[in-house]
Each structure stands twice: as C-alpha cells, then as structure tokens.
Fold:
Amino acid sequence: MIVRMSKVEVAGPRELLEKVLSLLRDTGILEIEPSSIGFIKKMDKAYIDSYMPDKNSLSEKLFLEDFKERIEELLSYLPRIVPRSGYFQPQAIIDTISETLQKHLLTCRGLHRKKEELQKELAELGRYNIFLDAVEPLLAGLKGSQDLDFIGLTLKDPDAEDLLRRALDHLTGDRYELMTAIAPDGTRAGLITMHKNMSEKIKHALSDKNIPEMKFPSALGGLTFVDKIGFLKKRTSEISDELDLINMQLDSFSMKWGTIYQRVKEWIDERLSLFRATASVFVTQMCFFIYGWTASEDVIKLRERLNDNFKGKVVLDELEIEQEDLNRMPVILKNPAYFKPFELFTRILPLPRYTSYDPTPFIAIFFPVFFGMILGDAGYGLFIILVSFLIFKKFREKRNVADACRILMAASLYCIFFGVLYGEFFGEFGHTLFGLEPVFIERRTAVIPMLYFAVSVGVVHVLIGSFLGLISAVHRKTGKEALVKLMHILLIVAILSLVASLFGFFPALMTKPIVLAVLIITPLLLFTGGLLAPLEVIKSIGNIISYARIMAIGLTSVLLAYVANHLAGMTGDIIIG
Structure:
C-alpha cells in the first residue's frame, strides 16, 4: 500500500546546518526536495536564496573528491577481505593519512604493475606448458643424446599423423622417430626426433606442407629443445613464486591498512553527501530552510529527534499539500507480511503515482485465487507446496527466489481449496483412493456452469478496477474524469444486465428498462468522454469475456489428468498382466 506522505519544512540557524543535515542523513526518513516550487511563497522569494558554499567549503569538497579517487585506486589493488570495525574518527588525522596515502599508493601501484606483468608472462608461458607437459615424458630416454635434434608440433587432424609419417619417410629414408601424446587440453602433441644435420630440411618441409611447428620465444633461440623445456619449466616456477610473494605483501598490507582506508573512504562519502545535500538547502542571512517529504507516521518522531538534539533551535513544520504537489510527491510502498512477497511483480513496473493505488494487494488477492481456480487440484497443490518449501529453504537469502516460493505456497493453498471444491486429487485418483467427491462442481462435466463462474469472476474483477479509477478521480478532484468513470461503470452493468435478462437470469419485465438505461447512458458517455469512451466500454466487455480462459485452461488441466489416469489404468498390472 502507498504510505501517506507529509510535506515538511525544517528551519534553524545557519551555523547548525551541517549538524542538521548529518542528523537527517542518519535518520534516513526525510527525502529532501531540491526544488522550491510549492514550498516557498512568492512574497518570500525575495528574501530566500539557494545555499552557496563558501571558498573553504569548495576547497574541502575538491580535496575530498581527489582523496576519494586515490583511496579507491589503492583499494582496487588490494584483495577483498572481511573488514574489521574501525573505532577512530578520520577527521582528526586526515592530513596525516593524506601523506601516508601517497606513499602507500606508489608502493601498491608498483606491486600491482609487477603482478600484471608476471601474470601476462605466465599466461604466455602457459601456452607452451600444455605442449611441454605432453611431450616431456617422451624425452625421458633421449636427454643424453647430443647428436639428436627435436621438433615439436601440434596435430589438429587425427589423419595428419599418417600423412606426416609418409612425408618423413620420404625425406629421411626412415631415419627419424615420431612420437605423439595427448595434451591436457585434448589436442595431440607430436615430437620428431632426428639427426641434427636433417632438422633444417624437415622444418622447411613442414612449413611447405602447412604443418605448424611449435615456436618458442625468440630469446630462447640459442638453446636446444631440451634446454628450452628446462628453462620454461624453471621460469614458470619462478613466476609463480614471485606472484605468491606479491600476493603475500598485498595481503599483509590489506590486513594492516585496508580497514583504515575503508573507514576513511566511508567518512569521505558521508562528508560529500552533506555537500551534495547543501545544494537543496535554502537560506536567508541568518537561517536555513530544508524542504522535503516524509512518511506522516514519522513526522512526530523526526520532530522529537530535532528537539532533543538542538534544544528547540531547529523546528519542523508540516505544510499544507497543494493540488500541484500530488504529481511530484515521492511514493513509498509498505505492505503487510502476506502481501509483501507479491511486490516481486510490482518491482518490474514503474512506481504508481501518489494519487493512485499500489497494485500489490490486488495481485496478492486475485493471483492466488485465479491460480487455484485454474489448477484446482489438491494433489498438485500439495506437491507445489512441498517443492516451493524445499527451494525456499535452500535459497532463503535470495530475495526474488524466496518471494517467488512464498507466492507459490500461497497460491497452492488456493489450489488445494478449489481442488476440494472440485473433488480433484491428481484428477480422479482421489475419488478412487479415498472416495473424494466434488463439494461445489465437477469441472469435467459441468462446462457451462464453470463458464458462468469464470465470467462472473471477470465481472467482479473488471468492475473493481473501474471503481478504483472512479475513487482515484474523485481524490484528484477531476470531476469530468470521475463522471466518465461513473458512466463507464453504469453502462457495463446495464449491458451485462441486458445480456443476463436475455438468457433468463433476470425477469423478462426488466429487459425494456435496461435497454432504456443503455440508451440514456450511452449519449451521456459520448458527451462526457468523447468518441473513444464507448470503445473503452467495449474493451472492458472483451476483458470480461476473456475470463472464460480460466474455465478453458482449468478444463484442459482436469481432462489431461483424467486421460493420464485412464491410460495408466488401461496398461493393467505390470507383473501379472
């Protein structure tokens, strides 16, 4: 539901402005209005101006903004840790921290830059390590051979190995050895062993046949294949050790200084929020004025808080709400515990206007009812409650998932309720198992009564919406709109009554008076609402008829359950046939 709001003015001596803003920020119950429209009378505008910060305040603001940027940069270099509570006031030591920050920033920036360079190098070496991990076991018995050379390659096509062997047979006269192994990433790594005087010839041949040779960094050009493997393994280990050392240094620094700088940043955020709030303050030579909105139930509490802290020097007055204020008043939604989960639906919609209605209670009332009417099976309802409860227990901390589970549990209760009315428990299984009979109606056979029931629900639902629109128009004091809404409701009732009388639900004597009422209301609706007004009535009638879907979908569900049970019964006993 939409919380009732009050339009308030907070006034006091200018020297208390900062303390008052700090208190208002701590309470969090006043939304400051940056505009003076609707708050300051025309006769007073000559004496009241927007607050302009002095030179010292501007200098402090610029200093704190720069300070915050440097702290954020420093914290971005540090690992995330659980912050400890800070019990010091940064304002007293801000100059000392500013000097220390510059030194710490240079240190952490250097460590971070070094860490990025090492991580980049490690990523480059990782490309080789995958290949080396595959071929290193193949070199175990060949490392002592001085006259041999090695060529590494990656075979992407499984058939490429046979083609490569035929090419090598032709080039070397079968004086080579080709060994392959599966690399950790699933590719096939190959290692060609040959005499040194044949390596260049084979490399050129591989290049001509577009078989890629494993290329190592140019800095390793003077090393043998075996030495390259040893160097890369050693360098990878060294980089890992250096990264561990840098991470230890950053962890140690974060444990010692992280909480301090985090507390300083929070204090700076508080100070900057006060500076931003002063842009919405109005002043005279001696006083300040803060205008805003607060929940009506919080006005007394806020007034008492101001009196207790400032001994009556700061006052809060509740101002009269004008008609023009209604369109810019902030909206706060506050619902009882049962309705609150259904805010999951309204959160995806824009906030309603202050003069309209919170749709949450209506969704909370009608959605479970419609769900129960459509599904209408006690067995399914029990199953959904069980599944929803288990999911809720697992994801209790996730707000949207928890709300969805609460909604399903509420809707399932109505599903059980209507299931008892319809006499359904997994279709006809309840009747077979324990003789469950319909209390209200049997949907499978009573199609027309279910249609009447569904359309009747649609009539109630649509008329409630139209009636709420009428009340809203009355509250906004828009007489013409209210009259159109009233004519709209009367015409819908008249048309529905006419249809009901034609089908024999009302006495035949009422048909002519109802027709006369329709003929009178229709011109009035055209006169007050224009040419499109009757089309809105037709649209509403269409919406009412569309509620027949409740009957149709519900009938489908019960027939599917009936067919499933019937087919299961036709199979007989699996054991005895």
Summary: The first helix runs from residue 17 to 27. The beta strands are 5-13, 31-32, 49-50, 148-155, 177-182, 188-195, 281-283, 287-295, 315-319. The mean pLDDT is 80.
